[in-house]
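Researcher: I need the complex structure. Ligand is adenosine monophosphate. Inputs:
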Amino acid sequence: MRDLLFDQTPTWALLESASRLTAQRHGYQRVVTPLLEATELFAHAVGQGTDIVDKEMYTFTDRSDRSLTLRPEATASVMRAYFDGGLHQAPQPVRVWYEGPMFRYDRPQAGRYRQFFQFGAEAVGDASPGLDVEMIEMAGDWLTAAGVEGVTLQLNSVGDEVCRPAYREALRDYFRPYLSEMCEEDRRRFEINPLRMLDCKKPSCTPFHASAPRIDEHLCDPCHDHHERVKAGLAALGIAHVDNPRLVRGLDYYTRTAFEFWHEDLEGAQNALGGGGRYDGLAEVLGFDPTPGVGFAMGSDRVVLALQRAGREVSADVVEVYLIPAAEGADSVVLQAARDLRGEGRSAVVDHSGRSLKARMRRAQKLGSPCVLIVGDDEMAAGTLTLRDMASGEQVSVPSSQLIEQVDSILGVPAVTGE
Ligand code: AMP
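Model: Output:
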């Protein structure tokens, strides 16, 4: 878990505004669920036999001996909130978005943290393929709004409870002769969840992936039709994708569409900026009425990383006016001037240090403030304020009634006309 300091937070602020803008344009409403949930919510939703539940959850007992977990993802929480909050009785689908920290006890490395942040959206209560397209479009729009380039959309269908069992068996039949050469984890997945074997990145296992049976050759007619309609929808919007039959979601409640956005510059397992898909079986797994849903979760940390590598970080805003009280009694004059500036929407910082004028001018320069206001003995005697244009070095003394006008002319803010 790491601190985000102000060399980074302006870039994060850019992502936050991209989230709000993207969600608003697509008609999604924000929800905020607790960072903590009952452990069984995630144990059911994320699933035993997955890395997240087996190794990565921050789980503890509270003072009432309840087992709680810091959320490793938010889809299960949103589904719970949808039923707890009676949203299943509202017109369907319900379109919601969220952002915030998620927690996974994973081995930290670049692009992988124990507290990381996601922007996500879910459309619950409707099984139309058009919603899958909407989700993909929205996640892509968020990346575009954030200024990320070099991304490919990977697309697959993982079928459903009708066609997947036969595919699972086909995978077992294929992998069985090679099992002794594959990693221990894959041997375990072979029993619980052979689809996830296709996800393994180990050099001992990847050579076997190329000739493995493909899910697209095992889809039942309704799944095939759904997938074709998603692809046609993307094509109609001009959204390019790569068919990736090895893109899988390990759990049974995931159905049909699965997608990920990969970044070309981030290495290996960390190249996924985010992903999503359909989870028509999730509500039932959680003990609710069967309810279809589709969603995505995009990782902000990796997007910030990609922006940094592309030299597209946002730097902090400079303070527009740096104010220096440099005479006995000047403090109150300067404080009032700063207040007037802020009241008019300009940013202002007062240097209270009492150091030499020269030292304080150097500080203003270092901060990059375009305008410095000085009140020394002369200004106190004359009842004026001195403003220095840091770019040209020119100084003028004005009465406080002309403060804003003069500051704006230094900042290059166009004057407001009388009309
Ligand atoms: P997932 O829910 O595992 O599909 O993750 C969705 C996205 O969240 C990933 O593509 C990453 O961008 C991000 N993400 C997941 N786990 C981490 C992590 N430990 N650190 C940073 N980002 C993560």
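Model: Summary of the prediction. The chain has two domains: 9-163+219-309, 321-411.
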